[in-house]
Amino acid sequence: MNRIVARKFGPNVCRLRIPWRPFSTDVAAKSSTSNAGNPEQETEGEQYDVAIVGGGMVGLALACSLASRPLTKHLNIAIIDSNPALGRKHLIKKDDLPDPRVSTVTPATISFFRDIGAWQYVDKQRHAYFDKMQVWDYTGLGFTKYNARDANKEVLGCVVENKVLLSSLLSRVQDIDVQNKIYPSRLNSMSILPNSSSLEVDSTSSATSLFTHGRLAKLELEDGNSLYAKLVVGADGGKSRVRELAGFRTTGWNYSQNAIICTVEHAIENHCAWQRFLPAGPIALLPIGDKFSNIVWTMNPKESSEFKSMSEDDFLKAVNHALDYGYGPHPKSSVMGNAGIFSWLKGNITVSAKDCFEVPPKVVKLASERMAFPLSLRHANDYTSKRVVLIGDAAHTVHPLAGQGVNLGFGDASTLSNVISEGIAVGTDIGEVSLLKKYEADRKPANVMMMAVLDGFQKAYSVDFGPLNILRAAAFHGAQYISPLKTSIISYASGEQRLPLFS
Amino acid sequence: MASSKLLSQPRWFRFLPRNLSNARLFSELASQPPVSEPQNNIESKSNNNFSSKASSTPSSLKEPELAKFSAIADTWWDYEGPFKPLHKMNPTRLAFIRSTLCRHFGKDPLSPRPFEGLRVIDVGCGGGILSEPLARMGATVTGIDAVEKNIKIARLHANLDPTTSTIEYCCTTAEKLVDEQRKFDAVISLEVIEHVANPAEFCKSLSSLIDHGGATVVSTINRSMRAYATAIVAAEYLLQWLPKGTHQWSSFLTPEELTMILKRASIDVKEMAGFVFNPISGRWSLSDDISVNFIAFGTKENESETV
Ligand SMILES: Cc1cc2nc3c(=O)[nH]c(=O)nc-3n(C[C@H](O)[C@H](O)[C@H](O)COP(=O)(O)OP(=O)(O)OC[C@H]3O[C@@H](n4cnc5c(N)ncnc54)[C@H](O)[C@@H]3O)c2cc1C
Ligand SMILES: C[S@@+](CC[C@H](N)C(=O)[O-])C[C@H]1O[C@@H](n2cnc3c(N)ncnc32)[C@H](O)[C@@H]1O
Question: Phi and psi dihedrals of B210, rounded to 5?
């Protein structure tokens, strides 16, 4: 590692393509060194252009995106994640039951996946486009129904299991000829020294020397391996270690609410996304393909433990109840369709006459375990400092009310790879904070706005207080007309959908 | 590049005389002391060993200017220091250089290292703010500056990264390299011409360094009231970015004057763009507004007549 052979692509000595190896061997990192034709035993870690900490959906999306752009595909990337799923290469079989962890991806995410060549793999696996959406609440004051064709769209969105998104991104990265390497471990510590201003001449360009001069970040992993990178990307989720090590503070709070998620089966196929606001929070029924749907049901923590432990039959009854006559009557008519109390909110929306209220298909079977997790909102005050940048949940966690979590993360990945590409075009050191600030300037307002909107929604729908119900219904019908909801929601992600709740 | 449309048809260009017989411009030019009045060569008194041997070209050195740069040489790589404006402008001017040189030399604009194989000289390189990205873009870079301290800083900094440690740094002047008959594919000199003793002679030296089929890129501050207001008042006084007195208004050129003196040095200006600073985003961008900072790309005219 003391000899720099590949000046052409930066300070990386290991130019041989390292095959992605199964995770059964924990010596992967070591053996690759000898594969690279570098016989002397390394004491120093390898050097990379980018180290992505966290190979979740967002981290892999970044790797994919970098690998598919002409100006960034040469970059040497290390991915650090102990998730054994990253070592496997197989598509998820369609006859497996759908996993309860799903994402509702927006048209913007779909086109990002197409751009980076990953959607073709999703296409081969289970996913469910939906072209209809019905949103109503328990007061019976009204409902809203959206059809893709009203917006001149084929679809409103697509529900995909997280594991399908992950395996698609992984297959894509494996199939492109890229110089990536996976470290099957977890980040333990990270150090970045300030740019040296000392005038002492040190002409060696070994990793240690570059590190000492602030040109490389040093990462130490739990398995004892260490590596160096010009840029460290924290894509390590809501409890980001990178964020902690970089000393970025966060702002946020926990809602005293939990979400229960599970897969359910119907007697018929579901093609519509349904969401009903109940006194304690919304319940959503999302099509996931075949006769399956996914349930995301928000409630208070006490309720959630009851609903989680009750018998399957009781739970199914509760779900059917919640999606039908439970808590209140069916709405009589669409508020949008008549000149009722909300007419002042209407704007020039057209609702097709036959879009009358429907009752979602009955749930007949539970098809997965029920999982409960607390809802929280967390936002990093900074996304970047020298040689460090955060993307995805590491930068912002929202509750899954709108299934936006991962879409925001994909937006981050897309923007960051774009910024890196622009930086390379003009010969910038990709770890330079002035470059990374462009990413932050682009994403932070977008993410903060979305979080504010979702937080507002959460608050508006978790209070059961007489007059508020009307206001709430007004807000939810008027969401697309009233600022700031208007500006934020409509322009989000798809920019096409009228209601944010599933976008 | 999004800006290529406006780059190829700069607004001002339409008003420029195509042939050089425009008397008004010439007379105006002649009345500009910094442009055509030969300055006394103060550098002979200097204790730097700049002009040890007789040069066929008059020296471009302007000692008081050099002293200013020498005094703040340590701060070249401080992004928040006196050279902040150059750091901030860097991506923008490099985008201009990338697009013009890729087109001129038929290089692949989608390559991460499009300048591979090009010999580029950065005249007045300072601490290497421009030289380093050029090297990362694949160019074989030579950086020269008249201030020894700058070169020292530039070399130290470039050595920290293997992709930039290939840069050849040298404390010398363009005219000396002309004497040594050095040639380059691209001769780049950004924000230097306003600090030299005789811009017209300086341009001739730049021109002589260009090899057959080569090109040049020059940028400077416009001598207009707006440039004065923006560059001097804002940068030197209000923002305290630059030490007071860094710029002398009288030594700025207008875009027309620069085009003229380049023309007289057998360089045809083909494209020009302005930099505009957006105080809200804090970013510079290329535009057809050349009233403050501007950058010009030129190619050498048919060499046969000058040989
Ligand atoms: C239970 C649950 C249900 C959800 N449901 C939905 C939903 O229905 N719709 C929706 O849009 N969003 C949902 N979300 C949010 C969504 O999952 C996240 O927004 C999304 O997963 C973020 O992706 P990410 O890649 O940023 O982070 P993650 O998916 O959290 O990935 C982080 C990765 O980093 C790795 N890692 C962590 N620490 C380290 C370390 N120290 N070193 C190395 N690697 C590390 C982990 O192994 C993991 O692979 C849900 C979240 C949870 C927890
Ligand atoms: C404003 S700085 C520009 C630095 C660099 N070109 C950039 O744009 O980042 C001007 C530089 O020109 C150098 N300089 C001034 N007169 C010079 C001359 N006659 N020959 C060579 N360099 C000169 C100064 O020392 C200083 O470093």
Answer: -80, 130
Reported confidence tier of residue A132, pLDDT bands at 50, 70, 90: confident
Tell me the chain B residues in contact with residue A67 when contact means C-beta distances shorter than 8 Å: none
Q: Using CA coordinates, name the residue in chain B closest to A199.
A: B156
Peptide bond just before A484 cis, omega within 30 deg: yes
Higher pLDDT, B132 or B40: B132
Strand partners, B121: B142, B187
Residue B155 tokens, joined: 């070399």
Is residue B139 included in any domain, yes or no? yes
**Distance (Å, whole) CA B271 – CA B129:** 23
Model pLDDT for residues B264-303, shown as the tens digit of each residue? 999 999 998 887 777 666 677 777 777 678 899 999 986 5
User: What digits encode the pLDDT tens for the residues B28-39?
Assistant: 333 333 333 344
* Residue B2: per-residue pLDDT: 40
Q: How confident is the model at residue A92 (pLDDT cuts 50, 70, 90)?
A: low
**Domain membership flag for residue B60:** no
- Cα–Cα distance for residue pair A449/A469, rounded to 1 Å: 24
Query: A466-475 pLDDT, tens per residue?
Result: 333 344 444 4
Mutate to test the interface with B, among A49, A216, A434 (most CBs of B within 10 A): A434
From chain A, the residues in CB contact with B95 under 8 A are 425-426
Bridging pattern class, strands A292-299 and A281-289: antiparallel
Mean pLDDT throughout A216-245? 96
CATH of the domain at B113: 3.40.50.150
> Which residues of A are less than 8 Å from B186 in CB distance?
none
Q: How many residues does chain A have?
A: 503
Q: If you search the block for the tokens 């040298």, which residue do you land on?
A: B170
Pairwise CA distance, residues B290 & B9, whole Å: 12
The pLDDT value recorded for residue B5 is 38
Residue A72, CB-side half-sphere exposure with 13 Å CA sphere? 25
B55-60 mean pLDDT: 70
pLDDT tens-digit map of A371-408: 998 887 888 999 999 999 999 999 998 766 556 678 88
Per the rule left: phi > 0, alpha: psi between -120 and 50, beta: everything else, B270 is: alpha
Q: How many domains, chain B?
A: 1
Q: Above pLDDT 70, what percent of chain A? A: 70
- pLDDT value, residue A328: 76
**Domain annotation for chain A: domains and CATH numbers:** 46-494 (3.50.50.60)
Pocket of ligand 1 (CB under 6 A): A 53-59, 80-81, 83, 101-104, 186-187, 235-237, 241, 261, 296, 373, 392-394, 400, 403-406, 409
At how many degrees (to 10) do helices A162-175 and A57-68 cross? 30
pTM for the structure as a whole: 0.79
State the ipTM, two decimals: 0.72
Which residues, 6+ apart, have CB-to-CB distance to A488 below 8 Å? Answer: A449, A450, A452, A453
- Closest to B65 (Cα-Cα) out of B222, B260, B198, B255: B198
Closest atom of ligand 1 to CA, residue A408: 19
Find the B271 Cα to ligand 2 centroid distance in Å.
23
A70 touches chain B (CB under 8 A): yes
Chain B stretch 261-290, residues whose beta carbon is closer than 8 A to a beta carbon of chain A: 281
Flag whether B196 is in a domain: yes
Residues 6+ apart with CB under 8 A from B195: B62, B65, B66, B69, B124, B251
From chain B, the residues in CB contact with A4 under 8 A are 162
B68 lies in a domain? no
**Is B2 in CB contact (< 8 Å) with chain A?**
no
Let me know: does A171 contact A178? Beta carbons within 8 Å.
no
Which domain covers residue B133, as residue numbers? Answer: 75-305
Contact B77 A196 (CB under 8 A): no
Residues A494/A402, Cβ–Cβ less than 8 Å: no
Q: How many helices (H) and strands (E) does chain B have?
A: 11, 8
